[in-house]
Structure formats: C-alpha cells, structure tokens
Write a structure and sequence with these properties.
Helix content: 40-55%
Strand content: 5-15%
CATH class of the largest domain: Alpha Beta
Order of helices and strands: HEHEHEHHHHHHEHEHEHEHEH
Number of helices: 14
Number of strands: 8
Number of domains: 3
Bound molecules: cobalamin
Distance between the termini: 51 Å
Structural class: alpha/beta
Strand order of the largest sheet: 5-4-6-7-8
CATH architecture of the largest domain: Alpha-Beta Barrel
Radius of gyration: 26 Å
CATH topology of the largest domain: TIM Barrel
Length: about 350
C-alpha cells in the first residue's frame, strides 16, 4: 500500500511492489531478499477484492521476490473460517504465495502447505509429506453443520423485518407504512434502533455474519433517509452542531440517528460524515462556529483518534462544547480524552444542549 491506502486493483499493487524493489536495490538489497505482502481483505466485506490479491501475487512473483500473506484475514465475519482459510491458502499458493502467515498449530493449514508441496513438485519425492504423515489414520468424518437457530426476524415486509434481514429493496415502502401510523422518533427508537440492536447481538453471538450485518446496516440507512424526509424541521434554528464519526471509523448509523434527532428538535447540523480527518473537524469548527461539536466512535481503536481530534480542536482555540458518544464510550473515558460531555444517546444530547442554551 502507499499513502493512498490499499489499492483496489492487482496492477496498482504491482506498481507499488515494483517501486519497493527498485528502492531496495538502490540500497543494495537484492530482490530475492525482498518479501512483498499483496494484502488480504475480508471476503465478507470486499468479496471482489479477493481475486485482486490473488492476481497481485501472480504479478508480483514475476519480480523475483518472495511473497507473503496473512491468510486468515480473508474469512473474517464468515462461518467455518478454517474452510475458507484453507481454500484461500491453496488458491494463493497456486498463484505464487511462498511465505504464508498462518497458525502453525492448525493441522489443516500446515497439511495444505505440505500437500501443495507434493502436488506442485516442490517437495521432491514427497519426502516432507511422507515424513509428516507416515502412519496416518483418517479421522471420523465431521458431523454435518447444524443450522443456527433463527432469532425473531420480524415479518417479511415490516420495517423491523426488512432491517433485521437486510432487505434493502422493501425498506422504503415499509418505512413509509410505519411512518403512517407512528411519529418519526418512535420509528427510530422503537423499530430501527431495536432491529439494529438485535442484528448486533446476533453478530456478536455468531448466528449472523458480516455480509448480513452490512446488508442490515444499508437497509437501516435507507430507512433513516425516509424518516429524515418525514421529520418536521423547525425554521427557527436553536443552534449549530458539527457532527462527525472520527478518523478510522466507518460506523455512522448512531451518528445519523443523532443528526435526525437534533434536526427534529430544531438544531442545524453540519454533518461531516464518517472516517473524518482531524483537520476537517477543526476546519468546520472554525468555519461554522458551532454551539457544539459531536464526535462519534464505535471502536476501542478509534477512541485514540477521537482524543487526537479533541486535542486539535483545543489547540485551534475552539470554543464549542465538545460532546462524544458511541457504544464504546463511557463518561470516564470521555473525561480522560478531554471531552466536555458524554451522553449515551441522541435525546440526552438534545437535553444537555437545551440546558446549555438556557444558561
Ligand atoms: C453495524 C456495525 C457495523 C457496520 C457499520 C455500518 C455503518 N454504516 O455504520 C459495518 C458492517 C460496516 C461494520 C464494520 C466494522 N465493524 Co462494526 N459493528 C456494527 C454493530 C453490529 C452495530 C453498530 C451500530 O450501528 N449500532 C446501532 C447504533 C444506533 O448505536 P451507536 O452507534 O452506539 O449510537 C447510539 C449511541 O451510542 C449514541 N451516539 C453515537 N454516536 C454519538 C455521538 C455523539 C456526539 C453522541 C452524543 C451520541 C452518540 O447515539 C446513538 C443512538 O442512540 C456493532 C456491534 C454492536 N452491537 O454495537 C459492531 C462493532 C462496533 N464493529 C466492530 C468492528 C471490529 C468492526 C470492523 C473492524 C470489522 C471488520 N474487521 O471488518 C469494521 C470497522 C471498519 C472501520 N474502520 O470502522 C466492533 C468494535 C469492537 C471494539 N470495541 O473496538 C463491534 C462492537 C462488533 C464486535 N463486537 O466485534 N460494523
């Protein structure tokens, strides 16, 4: 990868590998001593990029370098990860992977490497293979996988069901039907947040997997857009709030809820989106002079970039009240990283803003 992150295509990754090899040779490092990792992304989130990693291996090995891969990344978020890991390992080795990074205590993986040595002719006379498997007796066949019990998925076409099952196509109509009988905020709190919480629980329990989670998140996003269209937006603005999910974090469902709720209570929201660079937040705080800056983070790892953002805002002399939120935060962490306020949800955020305005 380079300063622009992980390139999407094999050709772009190859171009970077070429640059590395050239530079190494300038320092007297021969290419046979260079190891290039063509980078594995997870099949559950970036399915189309799996074959780019494999194609990149085939291209890069022509440079006469060694190739490495952290194999098991490929299966993150999917069931029966060992099966995917092993299949991917074999695909990768067939395309030039010679230094796989894998669990050496996993007999299936080391077995695949040994078998590949025989079949590709690198283990001459199958010497290593025979040494490892002399006296091998086959294990009893594994029991067939039992389908996971289904949680309550809601009706096929109600809003809860659409989000729970990640059905993006029906979600708009389902949201309209729900909004005909309930107030927008009730739809958010009683249907959308609950459906997402259930999806999150099932994901954590391992009964639902990353591609399904992504589908649910996308369905929820569509539903929030519809809810937003139905929210009454008061013309008189109470105050301005800059909102952002911090750098490195792409979770924006919670932030989007906060936005919808703030707007419905008459606040003007400048939404900077997700994965927001520190400088963009500082720039927006300087440009819009908001009453408050609200930062969202959902991962332990991105609390650090939240802290950096707060520090940069302070350095720039930002006078706005700094609020933080997101499932990973607590009042204690908020204090530690220098925020002014932590609130657990959007409505509390509104309440605190209103008391600040009343002062
Ligand atoms: C949906 C989801 C995703 C979706 C996100 C889609 C999207 N557009 O947001 C996708 C599939 C893309 C995703 C990706 C990943 N995810 Co994820 N994801 C979740 C999940 C299931 C739900 C999060 C959510 O939306 N909750 C619902 C909303 C409404 O809640 P909320 O955000 O907390 O918001 C409420 C409050 O916190 C508050 N609030 C939120 N922000 C703010 C801001 C302010 C200012 C205020 C006042 C209040 C406030 O108000 C909101 C409404 O009440 C959680 C698990 C869980 N059960 O929480 C994991 C989870 C957050 N993800 C996790 C991980 C690890 C990842 C990945 C790294 C996985 C991977 N290896 O690919 C990537 C991250 C990529 C990245 N760089 O960010 C971990 C984080 C672990 C940790 N503690 O660090 C979790 C906890 C799952 C787990 N247990 O492993 N994820």
């Amino acid at each position: 990868m380079d300063e622009n992150g992980v390139p999407r295509t094999a050709e772009e990754r190859f171009a970077i590998a070429e640059r590395i090899v050239r530079r190494a040779e300038e320092y007297g490092i021969p290419r046979r001593k260079v190891m290039i990792d063509t980078l594995v992304l997870t099949a559950s989130a970036e399915q189309a990029l799996v074959k780019e990693t494999i194609r990149a291996l085939a291209l890069v090995q022509k440079l006469g370098v060694k190739t490495a891969l952290g194999v098991s990344n490929v299966s993150f978020g999917l069931p029966n990860r060992p099966l995917l890991n092993k299949t991917f390992l074999v695909m990768a080795m067939a395309n030039g992977l010679n230094m796989p990074i894998l669990n050496p205590l996993d007999g299936e993986m080391t077995g695949a490497v040994r078998a590949f040595g025989v079949l590709s002719g690198t283990d001459v006379g199958a010497e290593g293979y025979i040494e490892a498997y002399r006296g091998f007796t086959p294990a009893a066949p594994a029991a067939a996988a039992v389908p996971a019990a289904k949680a309550d998925e809601g009706g096929a076409d109600d809003l809860f069901g659409c989000v729970r099952r990640g059905l993006k196509r029906g979600v708009r109509a389902a949201a309209e039907r729900e909004l005909a009988v309930r107030a927008p905020l009730e739809v958010v709190n009683d249907v959308l947040v609950k459906a997402l919480a259930e999806v999150g629980d099932c994901y954590e329990k391992g009964t639902l997997f990353l591609p399904q989670l992504i589908a649910s998140a996308e369905a929820a996003k569509e539903a929030f857009a519809v809810v937003g269209e139905h929210m009454e937006k008061s013309a008189a603005k109470k105050g301005r709030v800059v909102l952002a999910t911090v750098k490195g974090d792409v979770h924006d469902i919670g932030k989007n809820i906060v936005k919808v709720v703030l707007e419905s209570y008459g606040f003007e929201v400048i939404d900077l989106g997700k994965d927001t660079p520190v400088e963009r937040v500082v720039e927006a705080a300087e440009r819009y002079r908001p009453l408050a800056v609200g930062l969202s983070a959902l991962m332990t790892t991105t609390v650090k970039s939240m802290e950096e953002t707060i520090r940069a805002l302070r350095r720039a002399g930002c006078s706005a009240h700094i609020f933080v939120g997101g499932a990973v935060l607590t009042a204690d962490i908020a204090r530690e990283i220098g925020a002014d306020y932590y609130t657990a949800n959007a409505l509390e955020f509104v309440k605190v803003l209103e008391t600040l305005l009343a002062k």
